[in-house]
Structures are given as structure tokens and as C-alpha cells.
């Protein structure tokens, strides 16, 4: 068992009890994330079908694409966070990152083969890598410390609401007979561009500039060694979990392989996003009261159960019905963990290097997802779909056990 670090790792402060967590920046970032995810999720559930059915790519190619995409993002996340800390600015990285995602979707529109799809996805994720850590640091600095969980939960709820709207739009387009990917991409560009406009109204909090004036305490090359010991331990658990966290596109491919139509596959993805939406804000708010670790641990075990279910769904009674339930269970996992995990990293990070350590968290996650998608693609293609999902379930189970042993905290700690 590891005791809490002094200072920021002790958990949320009880200061500023009357200040609302719904700050201007949080609302603007939430709206921008809603619009961007609406755009992304109009395209994302169609991509595996487009790659395999239209372009003739194999599941192994799908794994290669998703692995390269995550590796690209990992190279930028910690770097952009560190530069943001040095400059004391968050807004330029957020606006620029979202703008690059628009260009990535435009590149997908021009793609005629899977290598060009790869190029568009890389550009889109490169933008995500640039914006993520500075944006999350801005969110953490825009609300009282004792309300970070609900702030990140609200952001993830807005993000997921956009995903729900995007999936519904994609479904309606396909049901209307307009299943050509480029038709969907044209419609997806409008909300993505509007998100960039919304972010132009963000305001710097001044906290990053104040810390930068004192010179950053953490050099980029020394970020791992300067991280609090408990945060380093959490990074290792996150990396192990990420090794089993292959791309969601394999879930869609699994459904397609079981005979689901393109439209029904998109509806399955909608069920996942609706469950994610329902749990995101309550989970963040609850983590402010009982701590982050219990929710993360529960999420890891739920992930293990859902992936084991995807592995064995062929052998379950009423397998076609069971897969709807599995997508809902999987959405429960992400709702419990996504925003809460970022809030935990924010709690354990020193204020003058918050974006650096949030970026390092995102980088470590992406470094795990790179081999995860490659391994899943190889297992799916060369062994069986069940083998790919059992591997992910095993990694999540081990990560959950380690989290129980090392991340437990007294009631009320973060």
C-alpha cells in the first residue's frame, strides 16, 4: 500500500466552497468538445466498415492504423503540456489542436486508399495530442480544487453528448441511403469548424503564467523522475491497463462479424455512448466525495468483465441480445473512469507542472495503446476474435488488482 503524497496528492481542498464549478472556460470547452465529438463520431463507427468492406483492408491493417495513430499522439501530448507550462499559456494549444482535427477530417474526405485514411487519422490525432494536456490543465485551473471531479465529469458528459448526437446523425444518414463515407464526412466538417470558433472565446486563468514566471520546476527530460512517487505508480498501472485497451473499432468489427448490419452496428455504438453519458457526470461528482480510486478500480473490473463477454459472446445464450448488453457495460466502464482518471492526475500533480504531468499521463496511455492495437489486430486476424478480447480482459484484471493493492485511500481522499 502506498500512502498519499503530501501537497496536491492529498486530495481536493475544501477552499472556495461557494464558487460554482460551471465556469466560463468549462462551459466553452464543454461546448467545443460536444461539437468536435459530434463530428468525430459521425465518422468513427463507419471507418472499420469502410476500411474492411470498401477498401479491402484486413483487421491487421486496422490494428496497424490505430497503433500508429496512438503512437503519433503520444509524441505530442507530454511535449505540448510541458511547453504550455513553460509559456504559461493554455488557449493557443487548445485552439490549434482542434483546428488540426478539422484538417484531419478534410484529409479523410480526400482519401482513396487506406494509407490516405491513415494520414487523415494521424493528422486528427496529432491535433488531439497538442490540445489535450493544456486544455485539461485549463479546466483544472478554472474550478475550485474540491470540485475538479465534477468539472471533468461535466466535460466528459458534454463530450459524450456530442458523440451520441454524432452517432445518431451517422445512423440517420445511412438509413436514408447515404452510406458513402464522403457524404458523412462533408456533414461532419461543420460542427468541427464551429468548435474552433467557440474556443476563441476562452480566457487564460493566469495560474499558468504565474507558475511560468517562477520557471518550471520540471524539465521535460526529467518529468518521470520528478513526478510524485504515487503518481509514477499510477502511471505504471495505467500503462498495463492500456496494453489491453485496443481500439473501440474492434468492438464494432466484432459486431459486424456476428451479422449485424451497418446501421445496427452504429446503434450498438450509440448504446455505448448513451451509457457513457449517463455515468460521466455522476461519477466525477461522486469522486469528489469518496475519492477517485474506488471508481477507477470498479471501472477496471467492469472493463475486464465486458471484454471477457465480447470474447465469449458466441457461446452465450441469445448472443445477438447479449452483445447489446455488453456495449452498455463497456460504456459504464468508460463513464466511471475517463474524467475521474484525469482528475486524479490533476490532484497528484504540482500546480506549476500540471499540464506536463497530464501530458505524461496521456503519453503513457498512448504508448500502451500502440502495441495494444497491434496485438489485438494480430490476435483477431491470426488466432481468433475471442483471443484478442481475452487478452484485453486479462490486462484489465491484473491492473485492477494492482490498483486495489496500491491505490486504496481513506474515505474522502482523492
Structure description:
Residues 1-19 and 410-414 have low confidence and may be disordered. The protein has 16 helices and no strands. It has helices spanning 24-43, 47-54, 59-87, 91-110, 114-141, 148-175, 181-199, 207-213, 223-226, 229-243, 249-257, 262-290, 293-312, 319-348, 354-382, 385-406. 77% of the residues lie in helices and 0% in strands. The chain is mostly helical.
Describe this structure in a few short sentences.
This protein is an all-alpha fold and 414 residues long.
Chart the SSEs and their pairings.
Elements: H1 24-43, H2 47-54, H3 59-87, H4 91-110, H5 114-141, H6 148-175, H7 181-199, H8 207-213, H9 223-226, H10 229-243, H11 249-257, H12 262-290, H13 293-312, H14 319-348, H15 354-382, H16 385-406
Helix pairs in contact: 1-6, 1-7, 3-5, 3-8, 3-15, 4-5, 4-7, 5-15, 6-12, 6-14, 10-15, 10-16, 12-14, 13-14, 13-16, 15-16
Task: Jot down its keywords.
single chain, 414 residues, mainly alpha, 16 helices, disordered N terminus, disordered C terminus
The termini sit apart by 15 Å
Extended strand count: 0
- Let me know the average pLDDT: 81
- The total count of helices amounts to 16
Low-confidence sequence ranges:
1-19, 410-414
Radius of gyration: 20 Å
Give the helix proportion (percent range).
Answer: over 70%
Per DSSP, what share of the residues sits in E-state strands of 2 or more residues?
A: under 5%
Structural class: mainly alpha
The multimeric state of the shown protein is: single chain
Amino acid at each position: 500500500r502506498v500512502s498519499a503524497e503530501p501537497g496536491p496528492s492529498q486530495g481536493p481542498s475544501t477552499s472556495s466552497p461557494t464558487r460554482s464549478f460551471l465556469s466560463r472556460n468549462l462551459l466553452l470547452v464543454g461546448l467545443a468538445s460536444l461539437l468536435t465529438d459530434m463530428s468525430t463520431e459521425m465518422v468513427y463507427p463507419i471507418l472499420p466498415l469502410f476500411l474492411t468492406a470498401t477498401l479491402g483492408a484486413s483487421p491487421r491493417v486496422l490494428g496497424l492504423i490505430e497503433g500508429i495513430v496512438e503512437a503519433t499522439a503520444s509524441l505530442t501530448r507530454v511535449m505540448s503540456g510541458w511547453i504550455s507550462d513553460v509559456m504559461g499559456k493554455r488557449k493557443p494549444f487548445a485552439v490549434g489542436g482542434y483546428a488540426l482535427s478539422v484538417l484531419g477530417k478534410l484529409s479523410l474526405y480526400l482519401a482513396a486508399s487506406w494509407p490516405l485514411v491513415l494520414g487523415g487519422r494521424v493528422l486528427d490525432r496529432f491535433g488531439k495530442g497538442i490540445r489535450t494536456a493544456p486544455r485539461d490543465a485549463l479546466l483544472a485551473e478554472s474550478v475550485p480544487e474540491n470540485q475538479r471531479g465534477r468539472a471533468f465529469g461535466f466535460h466528459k458528459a458534454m463530450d459524450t453528448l456530442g458523440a451520441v448526437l454524432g452517432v445518431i446523425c451517422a445512423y440517420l444518414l445511412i438509413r436514408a441511403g447515404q452510406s458513402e463515407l464522403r457524404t458523412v464526412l462533408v456533414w461532419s466538417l461543420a460542427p468541427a469548424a464551429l468548435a474552433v470558433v467557440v474556443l476563441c472565446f476562452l480566457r487564460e486563468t493566469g495560474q499558468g503564467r504565474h507558475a511560468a514566471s517562477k520557471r518550471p520546476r520540471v524539465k521535460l527530460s526529467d518529468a518521470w523522475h520528478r513526478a510524485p512517487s504515487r503518481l509514477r505508480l499510477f502511471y505504471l498501472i495505467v500503462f498495463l491497463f492500456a496494453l489491453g485497451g485496443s481500439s473501440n473499432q474492434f468492438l464494432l468489427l466484432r459486431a459486424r462479424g456476428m451479422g449485424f448490419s451497418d446501421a445496427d452496428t452504429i446503434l450498438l455504438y450509440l448504446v455505448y455512448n448513451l451509457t457513457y453519458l449517463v455515468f460521466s457526470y455522476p461519477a466525477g461528482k461522486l469522486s469528489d466525495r469518496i475519492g477517485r480510486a474506488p471508481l477507477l478500480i470498479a471501472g477496471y473490473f467492469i472493463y475486464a468483465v465486458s471484454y471477457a463477454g465480447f470474447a465469449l459472446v458466441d457461446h452465450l445464450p441469445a448472443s445477438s441480445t447479449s452483445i447489446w448488453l455488453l456495449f452498455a457495460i463497456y460504456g459504464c466502464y468508460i463513464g466511471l473512469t475517463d474524467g475521474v482518471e484525469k482528475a486524479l492526475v490533476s490532484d497528484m500533480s504540482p500546480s506549476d507542472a500540471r499540464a506536463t504531468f497530464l501530458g505524461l499521463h496521456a503519453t503513457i496511455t498512448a504508448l500502451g495503446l500502440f502495441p495494444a492495437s497491434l496485438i489485438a489486430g494480430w490476435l483477431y486476424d491470426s488466432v481468433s476474435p475471442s483471443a484478442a478480447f481475452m487478452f484485453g480482459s486479462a490486462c484489465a484484471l491484473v491492473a485492477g488488482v494492482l490498483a486495489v493493492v496500491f491505490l486504496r485511500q481513506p474515505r474522502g481522499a482523492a
